[in-house]
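Q: What would this chain look like folded?
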Amino acid sequence: MEYLPSLQQEFDEHKPSLFELLAEQQLSDLLPPSLRYLLAVATHRHPRYLLRILNSYDEVYALLSLIVERYYLRTFGGSFTENFYSLKRERVLRTKNGEIPRAQVGAAGPVRDALKLQSADVWKNLFVMVGIPYLKRKLDEGYDIHAAPHASLVTSGGPRYNPSDDLPANPSLRQRIFFYYKWFLRNVYPSVNAAYYFSVLAFNLAYLFDNTKYSSPFLWLIGTRIRRLGAADHRAIAAVLDPKPGPGTGRSQRPGGGLLGLLSPQNLHTQLLGSLRYFLPASIFALKFLEWWHASDFSRQLARKATEVLDLPAPVVAGLTSPAERRKSSIQDEKEKAKKQAEQEKKNAAGDLKPALKPPRRHQPPHIRDFLPSYLHCLFAPG
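A: My prediction, written as structure tokens:
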């Protein structure tokens, strides 16, 4: 009879608030652009190996999300980010109000086993968590490429669409599909996108005022709701993560079997996916720490104090001259250059004075025999 007071109160302690769900959704939406940025930075250093992955990032991320989310749904009952907030997903019973409070208080374990997601429910939730966001990202990208520029032209008085986008006379199947795809983006997708956001807003408001059990229209379609983890859930998760060995397994195990078991492909896959539970909070803490470090003045003060206290001498490398010797040699070279330049100037000045000191030459008048023929030179030859 100790659980009767809990049956009389209307407050549901396992129902998460809307703000918890919005925080979880915001964290889930921040993961794709963050990973894309890290991949883009790494691609600048290794473009040969990572450029193809960056070009097909949406497909690669959807595939990895499918693997990770499937493991977390089957093991922890919730998505990767929902497990960070201690949330889970469970089916809604087709009973009055969908609640069985008496059974939840008296037999929490069997109720958990009855409400946990089955194989079909896991795939439905994977479509909601991975498939719909992937389709929306691709449609948003296609709208920004094919429809948004033409919409801006329409507002400025331009044509409604590019005439080159018309369907040719004999179109191929690919051209026909691409034409109708662009027509859908221009004429139908804006209304579909608005209906999507309005439906999400309506369900959020209804969930906030406790008028529905579903925080999203897609959860209502697949009959799944989000709940907080209880004591029975924590016990079941601990039993899955830390299985107790049997009575005869300790002696019959061969030496090194534990290490080999951890390195086996099946266990390695499980250990790798399970370690993501600790990687996410560690990465968030590192991000917040770096934001604080760069925003505060503590790092600059610490660097300034470190440079004031430490007086490190310049490194000495064998085979290189010291700065003092280098200065002396440069001074000597300058003196020698100045001395040589002065001597050269003196030589140039002396060379310019020599023609001025020589006596002028006397020009003798020409002799008369220079104007006579050669056979008459004998008449004027000296005796």
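The mean pLDDT is 77.
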